[in-house]
Amino acid sequence: DAGVTQSPTHLIKTRGQQVTLRCSPKSGHDTVSWYQQALGQGPQFIFQYYEEEERQRGNFPDRFSGHQFPNYSSELNVNALLLGDSALYLCASSQGGTGELFFGEGSRLTVL
Amino acid sequence: AQKVTQAQTEISVVEKEDVTLDCVYETRDTTYYLFWYKQPPSGELVFLIRRNSFDEQNEISGRYSWNFQKSTSSFNFTITASQVVDSAVYFCALSDSSGGSYIPTFGRGTSLIVHP
After folding, report:
1. Which residue in chain A has the smallest CA separation from B43?
2. Phi-psi region of B62 (alpha: psi -120 to 50; beta: other; left: phi over 0)
3. How far is C-alpha A109 from the geometric centre of its chain's CA atoms?
4. Which of A103, B14, B34, B104 can bridge B93 by disulfide, Cβ–Cβ 3.0-4.6 Å?
């Protein structure tokens, strides 16, 4: 049973560029959440997708957008990258709204 | 608004010592969920436990135990006879209905270092 998988694992971008991160949820899960984790901090909620729609959003600017596909996989897009966007981006899947989150290993983004 | 405080930034112990990681939370809801996650150097957060607000019974799982006290809004985590493999960052999280759905809010984490 595959867990949550994310790609790419590491990437380097320059300021102003755009990035797309991908996530495949754990088998049987229909909800995908994205978190940003800066160095030495706890994960910060970006948004959650359910039934291909954004169900809830954290305090992140519109430069952060996402999508969920019919097979429940998801993408996170960040436009006009800033140095402060450098972080570990974690995808988590769950079944329903109150279940425990299962996390992937994350995509580490470095913005130069 | 929901909030989770993990006052201990880093704890260093020697193998076989017992260690307790503190977690204090704030919420206005009567229905909420509390979690603990472990984050090893690989980066993946590993689920350890979920507790709902109506179940104050303490739980033990092997060397791990959790003490939930609503009176002090705390959900502390104890590792008995710590091992080097327990070295990781541990996060406490809270989810309630603020915002319309139950989205976990994480504390800043406690880094546990277990020396051989």
Report:
1. A105
2. left
3. 11
4. B104
| Closest Cβ opposite residue A100 in set B42, B50, B108 | B50
A79: CB partners within 8 A, 6+ apart: A18, A63, A65
Residue of A nearest to B6 (CA): A42
pLDDT tens-digit readout, A40-84 = 999 999 999 999 999 999 999 999 999 999 999 999 999 999 999
Min CA distance, A76 vs chain B (Å)? 18
- Per the CB < 8 A criterion, the answer to whether A12 and A112 are in contact is yes
In this structure, the strands spanning B10-14 and B110-115 are parallel
How far from each other are the two terminal CA atoms of chain B, in whole angstroms?
A: 41
Distance CA(A105)–CA(A84), nearest Å, equals: 21
